[in-house]
Amino acid sequence: MTLEQLRIFIAVAEQQHVTRAAGELNLTQSATSSAIAALEARYGIKLFDRVGRGIVLTQTGRDFLGEARAVVARAKAAAQVLDDLAGLKRGSLSLAASQTVANYWLPQRIETFRKAYPGIDLHVTTGNTEEVAELVHRGAADLGFVEGEVDDPSLSVRRMEGDTLAVVVGPNHPWSGKTRITPKLLTGTGWMLREPGSGTRSMFEAALRKFGVRLSDLDIRLELPSNEALRVAVECGDCATVISDLVVSQSLAAGTLHRVDIDLPKRPFFMLRHKERYASRAEKALIAAFRL
């Protein structure tokens, strides 16, 4: 049994698909299938059942998955210790960030860190807040940066300066002539919103509750998983949206979007890390460089 076989097994178990796992690992499908077949043949067990075009873990596979993850995590921790001994001349960090943070908050800070530590490779994955928290929880990311609150007792959550949510409309919307709206007007227009699980949507739902408005009271026409897609859709449509002021600052300046004021709270960002995982020197250096 090799670490590479374990990594392949974990990827196939998480993707429940050999081809997708192979793509994630940058391997061929045949190499991925062979690694699983070798494990099953070596121990005379069956790790997956083939169901239609997909695969699912057997009970044996489910029992083995936790052990495989633990071994790979320990190997990663050992490699990080060795990287520490190199005095931050080499190493790697895996970061995960929700979209607003990844696109508008993180890039400048990453560039500052790269200049200070050119030998540390940074790998960034994006997702919504729930997806980022899950990546940190299972060790696929060393640190997570999100705009939504996370309730996971295994994660430490550090509050950071964030952004402000803004209600914006396109130039043809009836609100484009208004500077401010009241909560009772929120139910009188169509809305385009981020998908469930995004920090922006969760924060908006919390604000609605304070206004005495339920999300189900709104006329939601479209849900989109991307800030940029949402911004463009509202610019050329007749709906309102709520979005980070960082995302729409250039559109507001160009006049392709109009902001209407309503009492929405400032929104903090949060840094996530697993409480029980080893914090490498590279990780500590990044946190210091970010001034967190």
- Structural class determined from secondary elements: alpha/beta
Multimeric status of the protein:
single chain
**Morphology:** globular
- Name the average pLDDT: 91
Output the CATH topology of the largest domain: D-Maltodextrin-Binding Protein, domain 2
Largest sheet: 7 strands, mixed
* C-alpha end-to-end distance: 41 Å
Number of strands: 11
Low-pLDDT windows of residues:
none
CATH class of the largest domain: Alpha Beta
- How much of the sequence lies in strands comes to 15-25%
Q: Total number of helical segments?
A: 10
CATH architecture of the largest domain: 3-Layer(aba) Sandwich
The tally of domains stands at 3
Q: What's the helical proportion of residues?
A: 40-55%
Radius of gyration: 23 Å
- One letter per element, helices H and strands E, the order comes to HHHEEHEHEHEEEHEHEHEEH
Report on the structure:
This protein is of the alpha/beta class. It has 3 domains: 3-83, Winged helix-like DNA-binding domain superfamily/Winged helix DNA-binding domain (Arc Repressor Mutant, subunit A), CATH 1.10.10; 86-161 and 269-289, D-Maltodextrin-Binding Protein, domain 2 (3-Layer(aba) Sandwich); 163-267, 3-Layer(aba) Sandwich (D-Maltodextrin-Binding Protein, domain 2). It is 45% helix and 24% strand. The protein has 10 helices and 11 strands. It has helices at residues 3-15, 18-25, 29-43, 59-85, 99-116, 129-137, 199-211, 227-235, 245-254, 281-289, and strands at residues 48-51, 54-57, 91-98, 120-127, 143-146, 155-169, 190-194, 219-224, 240-244, 258-260, 266-274. The strands form 3 sheets. Strands 3, 4, 5, 6, 9, 10 and 11 form a 7-stranded mixed beta sheet that branches. A two-stranded antiparallel ribbon has the order 1-2. Strand 3, helix 5 and strand 4 form a beta-alpha-beta unit. The two termini are 41 Å apart. The model has no long low-confidence stretch (mean pLDDT 91). Residues 1-58 form the HTH lysR-type domain. NodD regulates the expression of the nodABCFE genes which encode other nodulation proteins. NodD is also a negative regulator of its own expression. Binds flavonoids as inducers. One of its GO terms (molecular function) is transcription cis-regulatory region binding. Belongs to the LysR transcriptional regulatory family. This is Transcriptional regulator, LysR family.
